[in-house]
Amino acid sequence: MGKALIIGAGGVASVVVHKCVQNSEVFEEICIASRTVSKCDALKEKLDGGKTIIHTAQVDADNTDELIELIKGFGPDVVINVALPYQDLTIMDACLATGVHYVDTANYEPPETAKFEYKWQWAYKEKFEKAGLTALLGSGFDPGVTGVFTAHAQKHEFDEIHYIDIVDANAGDHGYHFATNFNPEINIREITANGRYWREGEWIETAPLEKKEVYNLPEIGPKDIYLLYHEELESISKNIKGLKQIRFWMTFSEKYLTHLKVLENVGMTSIEPIEYEGKMIQPIHFLSKVLPDPASLGPRTKGKTNIGCIVRGLKDGKEKTYYVYNVCDHEECYNEVGSQAISYTTGVPAMIGAMLVMNGTWQKPGVYNVEEFDPDPFMDALNKWGLPWQESHNPELLDLEEKATELSR
User: Do 30 and 5 contact (CB within 8 A), yes or no?
Assistant: First the structure.
């Protein structure tokens, strides 16, 4: 059907490449591009020889001119951005300059500030409309599948959705004292930032990891979950009509949080530059270099993830609850594509989003989040490409009433 340029060569990019090669009827030709071309070449060497033609290239994703030159030379139908969130805008600029559709998995954040907002990318809406191009934002799992899950619930299960709790649980064990499951810098910035959730049109801010619950997850069991801010809250609260509250929760072990607190206390998680041997560096940059590479966790990690949405609202005038989720096995992911489940659950939806843009199913000029499109083809593709979803119409609920009372004070 067409050609895709994949920018990035880390753990998620590796999954995207594997899945594009599996889906050769759509992805007839791909180019893997990164600052470190040897990583791209290694992926090509591993997967070359099938129906999908694979190219590699070196590119600095911070440099729009380099990106434009690469895109013009390869001529893709879509650019799949699985580089760093700091590079979203330069890649979007390059897509506009070359007339190519755009897909990413995480919203832009400025390097100098730990701030997760869509405003910078939403500001491109008119430019993409005028260019007749689609920019699909957040086509990973969370954000991504979680947005599709809410759109599915809105279309098929509810007349009105009032409450959404997104729960992201990783029960995998990699054997290290401390490691992050994706880019250490992005991961630590996310966790150490203040929590936030949305209720009745307002954002309520909490201290980092201040709010904790215990939730019994299918196939994983009871886990400590902590309230975080996550970017899909911003878009879902805007796009799901009638919503009263949406929150995001993630699991962390005591060991993980203890290590993180020590690192934070000694300043290693800071993004404030310090002088070291005559150079200005951010401590978190140094920390990210000494921690295990997330791409190396695949062969070590055992256990499962469970990510889903607990939804409460009205159907035919009656209260209804609904839980839609995916359980993913780390070892099964590694056996299939050589990655752990965190990379797998992000990379598969990135391929699916790009496929739906390329084949015209989700192609509409402008800048959109996944929940703004028809969820059905995406939900069908999840079952086909390795992330089958499950549902419950009688799930265990988080304590909504207690939170409602607390928020009204």
Answer: yes
